Amino acid sequence: MSVQTAGNMPGAPQQQIQLPLSKAWEISLKSIRIRLGRSLITASGILLGIAFFSSVRTVTLFPIKAAGPAAIAEQSRHSFLAIMALLVCFVGIMNSMLMSVTERFREIGTMKCLGALDGFIVTLFIIEAGLMGVLGSAFGWLFGMLIMLLAHLAGGGAHDVNGAFFSGAAIQGVQAEIIGIVMTLVASIPTAVRAAKMPPAAALRSEV
Amino acid sequence: MGANEYVVRTKGLVKEFHMGDEVVRALNGVDLDIKRGEYLSIMGPSGSGKSTLFNAIGGLDRPDSGSVFINDVDMAQLDAKELAYLRCHTIGYIFQTFNLLPSMTALENVTLPTVFAGMTTDEGIERGIEVLNLVGLGHRLHHRPTQLSGGQQQRVAIARALANTPSIVLADEPTGNLDLKTGEEIIALLRELNQKEGVTIISATHDYKMVDVSDRVVWIRDGKIAKIEERADIKVSVGEVEGALET
Ligand SMILES: Nc1ncnc2c1ncn2[C@@H]1O[C@H](COP(=O)(O)OP(=O)(O)OP(=O)(O)O)[C@@H](O)[C@H]1O
Ligand SMILES: [Mg+2]
Q: What is the pLDDT of residue A74?
């Protein structure tokens, strides 16, 4: 084993290399897998938020029985609920993501000691958050939609479940997916960037 | 340039922490020259500034004034990528709390710095096994940190610090969380690596067992160097060592 390596050479300082995305992907997957319980809790935060939002949206696919002013009132009630659901969902995701980054400050500090660039750390968290966003939103939508569908069927509304319903539900699914992913990323990127930019000493000092 | 004598030099290091109105001067003008290949212990009472000095030398925190030169390069002049290169290739870090990544096995932990250094997976694994054998953990490659004893975790951390053949290993109380006997083993290992591999070891410590293996001991107090002793001058009992600091 030799000790005289490039790292010992005086002269012009060398720059750390940028790692390929595949490495970040590998490390992210590993950390999700080993922390499966914790990852599932984070993902279920996303899932429940999106499920709530999707259940409210699904109801709008069924024809409104009331007419005139009552119908308008019903529609605005749905919009209000959907907005509330989105807010609740966002706060939930924000909280999950804040936790999942802050509880790993020490790990972030350690990786920087080993030579990780700030950008690599941010990439790790974007991949993790993105994956949870994709899965949490998909299952959340499925869950919220199915609950409302079953409730409607139980109430004897089988004739409302037609092609139009399914194509409406599919569109809502895509929307829920996009909203879920965007929310997850918006909630996690600022925290990840802040954590990655911390001097390693500060990150290592944090006790969670 | 040939092998310059000093691997680390600090000049007038000052670091302050502000807590509300109160200012704590953790480092108050530290000038220290560390020779290539020596085993240097930094000793001092709790709160004297050892960890703060460790962070400054390791490029983990910026001092408020003064400079740190690593292999004659002023650390303050480095940009983020150059600093990351330095942390990756030139310095290996060992902590009191081991700081292994819980999601990775011993081998994966040790391989991670080689990933950052751009080695291929095969090269990294080969190197990882080599250094784990070096610290006597060749039979625990696939254990996770939680499946290892404290002493074994610290050996993994030492192997990880050595993965990219650094010229400096920085340790902050490496035996602080270990029992007496395990602590002695870790100290012996660090000394062996220092002598066989020629790596410079700089260790902040409370542990008087460390004095015996050190080439020099730097006593620090209230953010200042109180004195620097060569090992030849320290052959005294622990009680006297403590007494010496008081005078
Ligand atoms: N992040 C911080 N914020 C505020 N004060 C700090 C911070 N880090 C260190 N200090 C203060 O700086 C001084 C030196 O701290 P340092 O951690 O360097 O001591 P130390 O010699 O390593 O002590 P120990 O042996 O207990 O680890 C102490 O008075 C401490 O309270
Ligand atoms: Mg300390």
A: 85
